Amino acid sequence: MNTHLHVTAWALAIILFIVSLVLHKQGKEKAAKIVQMILRLDYLLILYSGGDLIMHYLNGSGAMTAEAIVKGLAGVGVIAGMEMTLGKIKDGDSAKVGWSVLLISILITIILGFFRLPGGLM
Ligand code: HEM
Question: For ligand 1, is residue 64 a contact (CB within 6 Å)?
Answer without folding.
Answer: no
